[in-house]
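Our preliminary data section would be incomplete without showing what the modeling component actually yields. Below, a chain of 508 amino acids is followed by its predicted structure, encoded as tokens that our downstream tools consume directly.
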Amino acid sequence: MKQQIWQGLEQLNNDPEFLQHKRNEFREDLPLTGGVSADAQTSRRDFLKILGFSVTAATIAASCEIPVRKAIPYVFKPEEIVPGIANYYASSFVDGSDYCSVLVKTREGRPIKIEGNSLSGITQGGTSARAQASIISLYDMARLRYPKKEGKKTTWKDIDAEIGGKLAGTNGTIALVTGSILSPSTRQAIAEFKNKFSNAKHIVYDPVSKAGILNANERNFGKRVVPSYRFDRAKTIVSFGADFLGTWVSPIEFTKQYSSSRKVSRENPTMSKHWHFESIMSLTGANADKRFTLLPSQEGIAVVALYNELAGMLGKTTLANATLKDAEAQKAIKQLALELKDGMGTSLIVSGSNDTNVQIVVNALNGMLGNYGNTLSLDRVYAHQSDDKAMAELVAGMGNGSVGAVILYHVNPAYSYPEAGKFMDGLKKVPVSVSFNDREDETSVGVKYLCPDNHYLESWCDAEPKTGFYSLSQPAISPLFDTRQAPESLLTWAGDRTTFYDYVRMYW
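Predicted structure:
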């Protein structure tokens, strides 16, 4: 006999009431038995009930089978992996001017979340929206899956032989166009590439240039650097259009510094005061104690007006007369000058202008107030190295045929360069054009060779965001596609077959 399981005595004894309920599974009358009409009075709940029943009935009638998904166990389980338990890998996120030390959360070998590394001396556990979103770009279906030549799939062996031969035979300039390079080992690989090809030139291009600050410091101090700012040491912070909590220079680092100076404690009994002059509302301006709206054309004049007020108080030579159109802002400048004079060496003045002359005046203000060595220093920040003049010369050279090859490394001038059309017209005249970008973006569609770079979560690398601070990157997953790290491609074409993992190890 076939063993049976009864839900209760009613089923065992075949109780008449139970049998009636069994024959009528739905104890309530189904609505809409007469069809749907505009006048039907039916609740949303009844509608969903009959919809669910009809879908289920259709599924059963069609004999739809749900695919079976089997969990396959490891043949040889890695010792450090326990299913369901996350692992964390220390690494570094670098994307253009954005840098932060991170912890990569993985489950069963797949990165799923980015967290800040609190042990970092720079970012102190902070991250940005771009760092958090970078996990999505790893699994982005728009990523290139293999190298291409003129839009068609090829192999690394073929592309290395072809590009290496063409670079060796190039008479014109070989232009390597990159964003700011924070990696010391990558900088060394670029130097090795330039040693191999004497006609190679490295051009740094950032979509948001800080050339004004670089040029001003080169003129004033002989160092083409972006200073290292310390907002946590400043008692009075003055910003002219610099959104240092949102986008300016190093917002992750500055947010941590700024927040520490704004918290009152036994160790820090006074809170910093923040003056902000800008043309539109920014994240930084929204947090300021004193905020004043100025036209963009007036921001430089406001910097000069503040300099003249301070110079007059300290017996220094003033600059050409600068009067603000906004009477309220002019009055605020006078009050601000008094506060700055009373706090010599404890203030910090910054400007978001890319005008070299404005930045020279800002340098003079910080020097007059004795801020150098206290709230800012000339320790190099590697996140901003762009050279606008060199980029303009490259575009001109591409147009007149003096450039024999262009290699693009994580830059997209067709999208971000002010004269994008001129750049693309010149790119068509270059015999050899290569892109390391991980997708066919606006610039990559116009090159002859696509040599996609690994995602940073698939790569070994290092970073030096500023002088004396170092961090490493390690892969949290094996490369998903047939890609290769860009520095390794440069080394290969220079005749060095070392993997970049070994290259980084040898460097350190």
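The longest strand covers residues 98-107. The mean pLDDT is 89. Preliminary results of this kind motivate Aim 1 of the renewal.
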